[in-house]
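yo

u said u wanted the structure for the complex thing, so here. seqs first:
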Amino acid sequence: MCLLCLGVAVGTTVLAISCGSSRQELIAVIPETDGMMLWDAAHTGAEKAASHTGSAIYWNAPMREDDVAAQVRLIEQVVSSKRYQGLVIAPTQALSVLSPVRRALSQNIPTVIIDTPLSLPPGGNLSYILNDEEEGARLAAERVARLLQGRGNVALLGINPDILGVTTRARVFEQTLAAQYPDIHVIEKRMGSFNILRERQVAEEFLASDPDVDVCVALLWTTLNGLFSAIDSMHPRRPFKIVAFDIAADPPFQQRPNLDCIIQADTKEMGRRAVELIHAKRRGQSVPAEVLLKPRVITRNNLNSPEIRQMMSFDWSLGRWAWSSTP
Amino acid sequence: MTSPSSIQRAFFITFAVCVFAIAVALVAWCIWWRSPVEVHSYQKSFANGQTDDWTALGGTWELVSGLMRDDSDERGAKLITGSSRWRNYSVEADISLLGQGDAGLIVRSNKEEEGVDAYSGYYSGIRTLDNALVLGRAEHGWREVTKKVSIPGGIQPFARYHLKLLAYDCQIVSALTTASNPTPESIAITDPDCVSSGHIGLRSYRSGGTWTNVVVRPAGHDELMAMLRNEEDRGVRAPGSPPPDNAAFSRAQARLTAQPVSNVHVQSVESLRLAFLARPALATVHGVVTLNSPLLFVQDSTGGMYVKQRQPLPLKVGDEVEVTGTVNPAVFSSVIEDASVRVLWESIPMAPVSVTASQASTGKFDATLIEVQGRITGKERGPDNTFILDLEDSGQSFRAVMNPGRSAYVFDRIKPESRLSLRGICVVDPAFTQNLTPFNLLLRSSEDLNVLAGPPWWSTGHIVALLFGLFLLSLVSGFLFQRVENWRLRAVLQERERLAHEMHDTLAQSFAGIGFQLQAIRNNLPTQDPALQQQLELASNLVRHSHEEARRSISMLRPQSLESEDLLSALDTHARLLVEGGSLRVSSERSGEIRPIPLRIADALFRVGLESIANTVRHAQATELRLHLHYGNNSATLQVEDNGTGFVPDNAPQGFGIRGMRRRTQSVSATFHVHSAPGQGTRIEVIAPLPPRVTFTTWPKFLWQYLTETWNHARPSKLSNSHSYRG
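structre next:
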């Protein structure tokens, strides 16, 4: 009888502890990768929102953008643990994460996809907070048109079919040029990936062909890195300007005079809204199925403006981390 | 009464085992919780290659000349050890960076995973980017404070620094010294919502590093104050302010400005295989280091190659390098000899290509970083203290070669027939394979090896252990079941005792009272009415008879007579009570070597004996009643014999209880015999089986029978002692 009482007491205690510990809303945020400014900003936004909603954030990501298996593994881990009340994903590859996302939805986990969409329609437990790629492409096209004064040749590098948003960028960019700036021609197009070595090789091959381009548009940050590396090694004869998307670190305008601008996604706002959306959804409030956030054009003139610095800053003040120096 | 179901029995036993296990775990956890930090010096274990208690999360960690070394440019590679219960302690080490980035120590770490800041704890390190001593907290995110060091030259790769990180309550202090600058430069934080305990660790971000003289000590308040007194010019970065000149932005990707490059023509690795067939020629390639020890392999997006350096350069896995040297094209890949290597920048290590053993054996992936699976068929130690695993998969055999160092622990643990996933450089050159296998795999570290599945569980040893375990479980279960049955029987006997007392206090007293009243009426009747007298006489006889029956029933219910005396004595006492004042003479006799009779059997014999004695007293009109109890080797025989009128056993009248006695004896697997004939008296004989005496030679037989009958409810044999209480 004594053993029975002890067993019941222990079991009840364990149950109470486990129930108590899971009361706080736990949201998993799994971006494409970690340790780079683009996604540190998203982390900042998510943590800021969580500090207001009282949620807790689990943040982790593959250490490389092209490590699709690692991202799928992290998502599966979150879904199978049954400890999380929300899931935010910036997919590395549109097709590979479909299965784990479907599993999350089947377990009624509110899921928000940020930055780039999947082929699943929004609705129910699935929402999108996306970078307005079409707007970004139009901004890039306008910037190119201003640089070339309506006439010239453009190379489009880094078309990555793994990311639906990137293919949208390429498509709308060309369409905008064709519709509004018919004297600007896209004479070169190259596929891209998150593999820097490969991007360098592609860029070197591109430059080796001595292209007659006036502006290079780099759709991925790895493409930009590869292009810089190729420029450094090959010293192309003809100078050209560069318009890039979604840089990983502070734009090197000083080091790269030919870099004109960066079309940067507001990942901090994506992170913030994603957490708030999940929190609202769990409370039965109506939430939009899809939100498009306009990217910003960062130039050397506005780089240090408060608006841009705030967007790119990854520092945050959290009540629980309000530490001080020693007394 | 029915026996408990096998389901109930199994449930009870399982529940008891679970409760016991929980209690043991609770005690062990309480003891563990109180385990204090002791001094741990890892220098000796590093020197001896003992790193069993370290867990790597990312990176390529190896022991090299007594140093723990991470040769990888991974962001946030960690090596963890210690206890999650360590609370107040300091850890210190001598640290060198292997490139640009940062490296340092972790304290109070929990929930570690692979990932950049994928742990909960505190980290302090030295960083080249802003020449800073860094201290911060990771919680799957990162927040830091930094302090620019005043060391001449700042933080440089390959220089040695001594870092000490102390955690006491919610105060964390970090101090940095060098041989040339022994005055500590410190930085400290007070974290109100601190992590209270956790592991220690080594960590690097992009630079890789080496760690030596790693020591953990318990920390007290005095030590904390001593470190704080040395603190100078605290450098606290106000949250929200932009990093000055981006210097504090430690998360920069590969520098976008490369080192100045020479104006050479860079070729792809694949092109080298075709371009220089006629004569050796110089070539320059760019690639990422995929293996740096003991040989250098470099890979670009077209393939990999072996590089023989003119002068060995300290390189890390993931470094992007420019290699210039003489090309020596081999069959499947090229070798660059007399090469000069220049680091362009640090990058993240390449991802391996997943191939099958069959694909790798074609040579197509020579000098390339691959991932392949295989089943271990053997292992041995190779030259230069390397560890060699023999594997096979899909009909292909290959070998994996691991460097000495941390691999020893993994090598010893791996069991033949395990299935592994391995990552490493595929080499097909006979210089590596000695033509024994189509290819070998050069592993970079023990982290390149994952056990997917152990050897099949069904081995001889495991089967024997399983059988033995089942055997022990059967013994324990049977013992527990027997105990439960005994408890139940005692409860039944206690209930009978209670009923007997109730009957004595109520029924028997009432009969006595009625008898007295009837006698009083007879005595006080005014007339001598014969009919009335006769009716009163009859009523008195009925009451007397009922009273006697009640007394007999009470005495049969009371088990105390059985428990306080042995069986024969109890029956003798009862018989003498029943015949007190009468003409029936009672004698009792025992024979054989007296031994204990199990309670259930004794109870059954006692009940049968009582019923037999009652029949003799009521029906036999006998003058002698003989009780005989014989103890045999494997049985006990009870005989109740009288010299009364006898009867025909097959036509036994109702009320003799023959059927009840037969049922009771069957319930204890005993045999019941009635020997009687009219005019020749009656002998009731019960032969009940007893458990055999357990000797050295008889115990296996006894055990086997006991187990068989206990679990299968088998038909009892002479050797058995079934305690089933069949109704």
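Chain B touches chain A through 66 residues (CB under 8 Å). Confidence is low (pLDDT under 50) at residues 232-260, 714-727 of chain B.
cya
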